[in-house]
TrEMBL record:
Keyword Ligase found: yes
GO molecular function annotation: acetate-CoA ligase activity; medium-chain fatty acid-CoA ligase activity
Protein name stated in the entry: Acetyl-coenzyme A synthetase
Annotated EC: 6.2.1.1
Domain AMP-dependent synthetase/ligase: 3-143
Entry keywords, A to Z: Ligase
Family, similarity comment: Belongs to the ATP-dependent AMP-binding enzyme family.
Residues covered by the AMP-binding enzyme C-terminal domain: 194-269
Biological process annotations from GO: fatty acid metabolic process
């Protein structure tokens, strides 16, 4: 077994202190928490850690690289699952994660099955579709919500996750986006996660959220809110130029806001994108095309 240490409320500095005092070996949290640990660890580091796990949201590929560079003795890992699957889904760690930092891993053996489906049919490798999961751990129903249950579960036990992904030839799965968070700009589908991955490659970005901005002409445009590293100044136009160097023009954010404070979060510590979007749209952006 393992000794478990818990804190009442998340604070990166408190977490780093407890990890060192208790000589803890494993950390699990949402991706933003492991990122904050890098800042909080300081010169002392976290020498007892051997694994830095993440779940609840997709960890930006750039974070995987930075974690491995910061914590030489610790290996980042990540899991994918949902409340409806009792967290069973995929897992990735060690060299697999370093080679494929944008992947969520392979199916957890031996009792979990995953397939990628579009229009009711399993798609070919490399094509994008919805993740369906089937395992003995799947939930039976949403309590007193038969219509929602029918939409989520197929008669033969597959759970429709609402997550878009692709699977490669080696069975590694890559999350593209939540179906509800996909941005459709003039008929072009844009993954908010893909744009966020590019944003996090900028050395001055601590937190970022990408979302759709309503538009009369194109239907939706790409919006971005960033919180700078250490509260430093960021130039929105320079930020857009940086993003544009690594992305197709239609995916590049056309509305950018610089947040003066950390982005709001849910009780799970994940970013509250609905609130981020609501606050951003209530004020003029720092950059607009």
């Amino acid at each position: 077994g393992r000794r478990v240490a818990m804190i009442y409320r998340w604070d990166a500095k408190d977490a780093a202190k407890i990890i060192n005092e208790e000589r803890l070996t494993n950390f699990v949290g949402v991706p933003s928490q492991s990122f904050e640990l890098m800042e909080a660890a300081g010169a002392e580091g976290l020498p007892s850690l051997i694994d830095i796990g993440a779940g609840g949201a997709k960890r930006p590929a750039e974070h995987v690289k930075k974690l491995a560079k910061t914590f030489k003795q610790a290996k980042p890992s990540s899991g994918y699952g949902l409340s409806e699957t009792n967290a069973l889904g995929c897992v990735i760690s060690l060299d697999d994660y370093q080679k494929r930092p944008d992947s969520t891993g392979r199916t957890v053996p031996p009792v979990t099955d995953i397939k990628i489906v579009k229009d009711g049919e399993e798609v070919a490798r490399g094509e994008v579709g919805e993740i369906w999961i089937r395992s003995p751990a799947n939930f039976r129903c949403y309590l007193n919500l038969p219509e929602d249950t029918e939409k989520a579960l197929t008669p033969d036990g597959w759970f429709r996750t609402g997550d878009l992904a692709r699977m490669d030839e080696e069975d590694f799965i890559y999350i593209v986006d939540r179906m509800k968070e996909l941005i459709i700009r003039g008929g072009e589908n844009i993954s908010s996660l893909e744009v966020e991955n590019r944003v996090y490659q900028h050395p001055g970005v601590a937190e970022a959220a990408v979302f759709s901005v309503p538009d009369e002409v194109l239907g939706e445009r790409v919006g971005l809110v960033v919180y700078p590293m250490g509260g430093a100044a960021l130039d929105a136009a320079e930020m857009r130029d940086f993003i544009a160097e690594g992305m197709a023009a239609y995916k590049t954010p056309e509305r950018i806001w610089i947040s003066p404070s950390p982005l709001p979060r849910l009780g799970t510590a994940k970013f509250d994108k609905l609130t981020v979007k609501k606050i951003a749209l209530s004020q003029p952006p720092a950059f607009s095309v």
